[in-house]
Specification:
By secondary structure, this protein is mostly helical. It contains twelve helices and no strands. Helix 5 runs antiparallel to helix 6, helix 5 runs parallel beside helix 9 and helix 6 crosses helix 11. The chain is globular.
Length: 266
């Protein structure tokens, strides 16, 4: 994988890095704004806990309430707890940032589609956080779950300072939804089989960790993933690819990148 040298019609490394810096700077500003707004609309604790119990009642009604049983193997094992924490902490923003840099340099058209899907889904999420704040399982009395991230790690508070985090934003889970989008970017652009497997595996591991760390209910990543897929469909539609969210193309065929930027398989 390499970037083409400067030739007529082909950007040089400095140009590519300039584009990457601009795009990632815009994305970083949008993320900071997202968290700042999310913090400002933090719901009242009593309302968030009441809504959490509604989510629990809903899961019970459809037979998927299993958060306590799901977490037990992890809390019984220091190794599994550590792995779940690492995935939840380092498998989100650090992972997203690295893949976004790869996409913006080698697959800019795909990056723009995924960036727009981030922005669309984040906007939907802010509306839900505002009108239906939900406390995570770790903050609901009576649930036999453990906040493994807080008890066993301090890194998360560095990556996401408490002042920018709304703790009543459990539903939906964009830890899963956004990881799924970035994983799809890997699957759609890479031609290396084990890299594509990592693109599939990363959001699955994140979905497991969201529940295993008591930060989300089982329904949270399901809704986060559904919103992210809808946002991806709308982002593709806005660029002229009117694909069904269930079509093979939306999973495996990226938008073509402008000539001169993409140089080979990633």
């Amino acid at each position: 994988m390499r970037l083409r040298s400067a030739t007529p019609g082909h950007p040089s490394w400095p140009h590519a890095l300039s584009v990457a810096s601009r795009e990632l700077g815009m994305m970083f500003a949008a993320v900071i704004a997202y968290f700042a707004i999310r913090g400002l609309v933090e719901g009242a604790g009593d309302t968030a806990v009441a809504n959490a119990r509604r989510v629990i009642d809903f899961e019970r009604s459809i037979g998927i309430f299993a958060e306590e049983r799901f977490q037990r193997p992890f809390t019984d094992s220091d190794l599994l707890t550590t792995l779940a924490n690492w995935v939840y902490i380092y498998g989100h923003w650090p992972f997203i940032a690295v893949v976004a840099l790869w996409l913006v340099v080698w697959h800019p058209a795909e990056y723009r589609v995924i960036r727009n899907a981030f922005l669309i889904s984040g906007s939907v999420g802010l509306v839900i956080f505002l009108f239906f704040p939900v406390a995570p399982p770790r903050l609901v009395d009576g649930l036999n779950v453990v906040d493994t991230v807080t008890e066993h790690s301090r890194a998360y508070r560095v990556l996401q300072p408490p002042a920018l985090v709304n703790q009543y934003a459990a539903l939906p889970s964009f830890h899963f939804g956004w990881n799924m989008l970035i994983g799809l970017g890997i699957v759609r652009c890479s031609r290396v089989w084990f890299v594509r497997i990592a693109g599939f595996a990363a959001p699955i591991a994140m979905g497991v960790s969201t529940v295993a760390t008591a930060n989300h209910y089982i329904v949270d990543p399901l809704l986060g993933g559904a919103i992210a897929l809808l946002a991806l469909y709308l982002a593709e539609w806005s660029r002229g690819r009117r694909l069904s969210p269930f079509s093979r193309e939306i999973w495996f065929s990226p938008m073509p990148s402008p000539p001169g930027v993409v140089t080979g398989a990633g």
